[in-house]
Design brief:
heterodimer, A: mainly alpha, MetI-like fold, 13 helices, B: mainly alpha
Chain lengths: 294, 275
């Protein structure tokens, strides 16, 4: 292994074991990230070689970009709805599927299935369901609620995105909650039963507090995925009708790669990063504090 | 009391079964309509196909350039995951066993970097790799997957290697093994559970990834399944039967693997999320 006391000895060992990872990590994650921060202060349009330093102009442009704020607000509602509904359904499913039902493994596998498939494909599947199947049902069974495609109405299109996200992720979160339920010590539950605690009381005083670590993970994952959602948005609504369902990721993508406003787009991406990091860090620190020892 | 329990069980089963049907039914719509002609789909999307014909599949297979896209996806996924496993396990090993300043800092930066979303990097990434002519190649894409995937993998291996006793390695070294041999023959096999978890998570991620390949792979020969499905369904969105067959073709490989490995996949996801 050579002499690891000297700088070169250390350097050699380090390069052999960690060299490729470190190089790839730095060149793919860190340098682009830092370069991205620099780009937000320049007037780069994607084509010219010239980067003029323009200070905070891109950020001022972001504050004036009403579409960005509309999209951000829309994303906020989307995240709120998906996080609450996904976790509620996932928690209930996990609860029922750990009570020793017959065939519970088959159910778990079934609910997990959407997670195996890419968002683009899921989006197209649901586009067909919303614009063909449901419209057909609406027309033939006299259900005016379904007669026009949900994708053509901004309010309903919002809910299509929420429905697909819930459908997609609740199986994943369910798996994590199942593990949480299985980690609740049986002897504590038995002791509580003997002391006369009913199901509701046990849920409130034992199961929920013991499950906080699962909530930490699930809330974190669903928040992050909610803010980053792109593929389903692209395939299902494409941002329409009239850009009313453009989630923030799509907005950033379009700003940079379609409108060629790279500097502004990158500034928006960074603001998005700061928002997501802040929200998830707050969430993790709150739920971590609530954790208890068995 | 017993009767109450029975009723509760029946209600539970009905609710869960009903939900499961709701979860699965979109796939069934796709399967049923993939065998129909477009005009039959428009006439009644709920009806069973009049006659089972695989015409849509044959057509979709050709138009999507399916075999090419499938091979691209397979190569990209397998090679990327293999590189991530090899590089990350070695990196985590040296990080745990050598408490140097650089290994500590690197680990810290890797953990912190995991909260950076891809969207915050994609614009400069395209700019940098475009300007050095590294876009539009599978190999560049695999390299990027290494860069994006290595942090999580290092983090998971790091946690596991800490629990492996040093004595084991020392014994091997006394017997004359080099550190490199000790790592691959003693340590790496011990980490199999972690490796399986990382493989599961990364295969699901890379196989289904859309945004990064859509930015990197420009020419149509290089497209992955997700990309060719996107362009295909975008172009043939009105030809419903054909487009459903295309969707089925891209779902099938994953479903077949899932049928055999569902326990491992769910276990992998579970292990991965707890850490």
């Amino acid at each position: 292994m050579g002499n690891e006391k000297s700088f070169w000895g250390k350097f050699k060992t380090f390069s052999i074991y960690a060299g490729p990872s470190t190089f790839a990590f730095l060149t793919v994650m860190i340098i682009p990230f830092i370069y991205g921060v620099y780009l937000t202060f320049t007037s780069w349009d994607g084509l010219s070689e010239i980067h003029k330093f323009i200070g905070f102009e891109n950020y001022i442009a972001v504050f004036k970009d009403t579409e960005f704020w509309t999209s951000l607000g829309f994303t906020g509602w989307y995240v709120l709805a998906t996080v609450i509904i996904t976790n509620a359904i996932a928690f209930l499913l996990a609860y029922v599927l750990t009570t020793g039902m017959k065939g519970q493994n088959i159910y778990r596998a079934g609910f997990f299935t959407p997670n195996l498939i890419g968002g683009i494909i899921l989006g197209f599947i649901w586009k067909f369901v919303f614009s063909n199947i449901l419209v057909y049902i609406g027309e033939n069974f006299n259900l005016p609620f379904f007669e026009t495609s949900w994708l053509a109405d901004p309010k309903k299109a919002f809910w299509t995105l929420v429905i697909v996200a819930v459908w997609q992720y609740s199986g994943y979160m369910m798996i994590i909650y199942v593990a949480g339920f299985m980690n609740v010590p049986k002897d504590i539950l038995e002791a509580a039963s003997i002391d006369g605690a009913n199901g509701f009381k046990k849920m409130k005083s034992i199961i929920l507090p013991m499950m906080i670590p699962s909530f930490t993970v699930c809330l974190f994952l669903s928040l992050q995925r909610g803010f980053m959602a792109y593929e389903v948005n692209l395939a299902l609504t494409g941002g329409g009708p009239y850009k009313t369902t453009e989630l923030i990721s799509m907005h950033v993508y379009n700003k940079a790669f379609l409108s060629q406003q790279y500097g502004v787009g990158q500034a928006e991406a960074l603001i998005l990063f700061i928002i997501v990091a802040t929200v998830t860090l707050i969430q993790v620190s709150i739920t971590k504090k609530m954790e208890v020892e068995a | 009391m017993k009767k109450q329990k029975l009723i509760a069980n029946i209600i539970k089963t009905i609710v869960v079964c009903g939900l499961l049907v709701l979860y699965i039914v979109p796939f069934i719509f796709v399967v049923v309509n993939s065998f129909k002609e477009s005009k039959d789909v428009t006439a009644n999307p709920l009806a069973l196909p009049a006659n089972f014909s695989f015409d849509n599949y044959v057509e979709a297979f050709k138009v999507m350039n399916y075999s090419n896209a499938f091979m691209n996806t397979l190569i990209i996924t397998l090679v990327s995951v293999a590189i991530i496993i090899i590089c990350a396990s070695m990196t985590a090993y040296i990080m745990v066993r050598k408490k140097w300043k650089i290994t500590k800092y690197l680990f810290f930066i890797m953990v912190i970097s995991m909260i950076i979303p891809f969207q915050a990097i994609m614009i400069p990434l395209v700019k940098i790799y475009g300007s050095i002519g590294m876009l539009n190649s599978k190999w560049a894409l695999m390299y990027m997957y290494l860069g994006f995937g290595v942090s999580l993998a290092v983090f998971m291996y790091h946690g596991f290697i800490k629990s492996i006793p040093m004595e084991l390695e020392e014994a091997a070294m006394i017997d004359g093994a080099t550190r490199f041999q000790t790592f691959w023959k003693i340590v790496f096999p011990l980490m199999k559970p972690t490796t399986m978890t990382i493989v599961t998570l990364d295969v699901l991620w890379i196989w289904n990834d859309f945004l990064l390949p859509s930015l990197v792979l420009v020419s149509s020969d290089e497209r992955t399944l997700q990309l060719s499905t996107y362009y295909f369904s975008g172009t043939y969105s009105v030809n419903y039967g054909l487009s459903m067959a295309g969707l089925m073709l891209s779902i099938l490989p994953v479903l077949i693997i899932y049928l055999f490995l569902q326990k491992g996949i769910i276990g992998g996801v579970l292990q991965g999320s707890i850490k």
